[in-house]
Fold this sequence. Notes:
Blueprint: E1 30-31, E2 39-51, H1 60-70, E3 75-79, E4 86-90, E5 96-100, E6 110-114, E7 122-127, E8 132-137, E9 139-140, E10 144-150, H2 158-173, E11 180-186, H3 209-220, E12 223-225, E13 240-241, E14 248-249, E15 252-257, E16 264-269, E17 282-290, H4 309-329, H5 335-353, H6 368-383, H7 385-392
Helix pairs in contact: 4-5, 6-7
Amino acid sequence: MEYCDDSHRLGRRPVQGPRPSSGNQGRDEKLATGRTSTLQLRKNLRLATWNIRSLVEIGKVHVLGREMERLKVNVCGLSEVRWAGQGHFTTLEGHTIVYAGESNQGQRGVAVWLHKNITGAIIGYEPVSSRIIKIRLTAKPRNITMVQAYGPTSVSAEADIGEFYEDLSKAVRSVSKKDILVVTGDFNAKLGMEESAATGRFGLGHSNDVGDRLREFFIEHELIVANTIFQHHPRRRYTWISPDGQTRNQIDYIAIKASWRTSLMNCKTYPGADCDTDHVPVVVTVKAKFKKRMDGKMIPRLNVEALKEYKAELYAVEVTNRFDALTKTQSEQTPEELWNETKTVLLETAEETIGFKQRQKRKMWISDETFAIVKEKREAKTKCPEKYRELKTVV
Length: 395
């Protein structure tokens, strides 16, 4: 087996991926809805990054969730999800995924997966491009901002590489100086074992030209690459393996603001994780913990799908009648008072006409037998390559 330093590899609903983005998706930073939660830097937090090589296939979101739970990951940046558009959704298991992609499905795309226990910590997120997404989490003593990236390959045009690093620099500079900054992703670059202000001596192989550029980026922004400063066997350092299984490179990285280096406890890869990808997840353990989730009442949602035909006409008539009654009785009012009355009329009439949605618990559509095969395939990945290839044709 060769740990090579030369070769380089060139939405919907929760069940099938992301749903289409809503009309307000153009905002620079999107606010999360629902409950709030807080992170406290006291115990252990596990952050990861993984090039998943497409989440378009039906069922892959569920397999991803199972692997993240098995690895006890709290937040994971994802590369090459290949979804179209921008947005966020909740999986059937309750985890949250925010994503940014191209206008057409099947190309590039980045995302961030968050465990259901900490989704309430989301302050907001910003899809920068189909290669970069930024998410901010509330924390103590400092908020955490995570930037997930998917870099161009070394054979890409210089203009594409330059544009990527320009966008990435803008995203990093826009982060509050008070935040704990974490930059993760598949950068398609090799940093090697060269020690510098940004990298330790426990990388893999030798750097390439794109790797030198990436190192300069990390140094410029005062970031330290976590998976180059912990000494592990090479099998715990490589992040990509060639199709023939003979070449292994380190091209996925997790970097944190250098001033928070002492909060890092460990960083390594997990080659046993399996989600039909040639990449291996990188996981960093940080001295952090999430405060107990503050569960409140679910925000009721109006059953707007029922607002059609007879009920739509009834709603229009009721609203008109109530506004007519207000017109006859109202005196001079401030704009705020007028808005409050208008909002009350619209919401109360809607509640009386169509009511609220009833929360339904949906059944898991992937069977236990399928997950058993997935587990068997994962175990065969490192022990029996022939059996692994055979099981890949089944799941």
